[in-house]
Amino acid sequence: MLDTKRLTQAVDHFADRLRAAPQSRLQRGAAAEALGLAREFARRAQIAEEPAAEPREMPDAGMFAAADQITVAVHDLVLVLTDESQIDEAVRLVEEAQKRAGV
Length: 103
Fold this sequence. Notes:
By secondary structure, the protein is mostly helical. It contains four helices and no strands. It starts with a helix and ends with a helix.
């Protein structure tokens, strides 16, 4: 069984920082960065589940939903991960997105 705790903790930390961020920070790109990460995680999960199907894009539910969107997307992704290198890559993506978001 894979140890996905590191990944879910990284996403939970990013989501908590987004929830605590002022609206101005979200508007300056933090929410868009989180949405981009959520979309990437959702895309990866869909490809793993249905390789022949065209992935659907996660909709933009607004800047105040971005934290929830990355949380939901990572939980879907965790269900389809098959090795530790995928976890390492996902954690790296979270850390990079959080850095770019400035939260």
